[in-house]
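Exam prep: given the inputs below (a chain plus adenosine-5'-diphosphate), describe the expected output before reading on.
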Amino acid sequence: MNVCFLMYPWQDIKNPEDDSSLALVKECVKRGHGVAMTTPANLTIRDSVTFAFCKVIERQEKVSQTLKGFHAKAKFRDEMLPLAGFDVIIMRSNPPLDTIMLNFLDSVKDDVFIMNSVDGIRRANNKLYTAVFEDDKTEFIPRTHVTKNKEYLLGIIKESKEDKMILKPLNGFGGSGVILIEKSAMNSISSLLDFYINNKDGSSNYVILQDYIPGADQGDVRILMLNGKAIGAMKRVPGENDHRSNVSAGGRVEKHALTKREKELCRRIGPKLVKDGLYFVGIDVINGMLVEVNVMSPGGITYMNRVYKTKVQEKVINFVEDMVIAKVSRLDRRAQLRKHVDEA
Ligand SMILES: Nc1ncnc2c1ncn2[C@@H]1O[C@H](COP(=O)(O)OP(=O)(O)O)[C@@H](O)[C@H]1O
Ligand SMILES: [Mg+2]
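Solution:
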């Protein structure tokens, strides 16, 4: 099959051994698939057809064992290719979302299998997706407020029985801007909220205020979900001087066996993820509570591979191949039926 990775530029991969997208690319090359890479900025319309300026990876007789070797040795050919000619587009671009990219993809979404789907990404690209999951009893999602209204937030903080709460930007990732606030240090909170909400140019941002989940200091759990089912999990333990567990914020990775509650959580959200076309996502769970659904470029494959000595990317690409085969046979069948009617 022919695969197009829509992701960040190759040269931006600074730590190949940690890069989950690269693990997926390498798996495709290893299986002999045609692999092209492009970035959101390289999408182009020519005569009403959506193309991308691509870097096509030269086929390799022997693929390097390590991601570092693979990254260093890969050779590319520049081509301008029509997106609808690929069998699959694997989206791995980093947040924040480029919404124009989705407009380009809208034009090919009926022709090509896109993982994750354009509509799913549109729906779930920020933390609002988690906040509005149907859970009004806060069984699986911590009590969450999303607003630009500072007075409202100050009121919530004042009323809160707990001393600790979490404040974070709606569009953050990698732990950036996630802070722990304490009621006992209330005097700086108003200025902090101003800082989070108001930009210098007069625009403003939504912020999330969320109950602090007890036990977060022991770490959080990243679960990778493929087609609505968990395919791997790991524990991320925060570094000495941080409350965040993101690896990019100094967290370290350990093995983790899913608890009964975590399995129940996966069962609850799996069908909705699939319905929304969110086939491959990473969820962040603390103490059985869902904190975040990462849909744009979920990471964790390389870390899980290391702690478990597995190859998570194989499962992901197996799934992609199955989806492509199913799509191709649907199209073939449709062509046969059309021919039948045509000839009648
Ligand atoms: N409600 C919360 N209670 C406790 N810790 C939290 C909470 N929300 C986030 N954190 C901590 O901050 C980290 C990053 O938060 P998350 O919402 O996943 O944003 P990001 O997109 O930056 O990863 C989490 O992995 C966790 O360690
Ligand atoms: Mg996270």
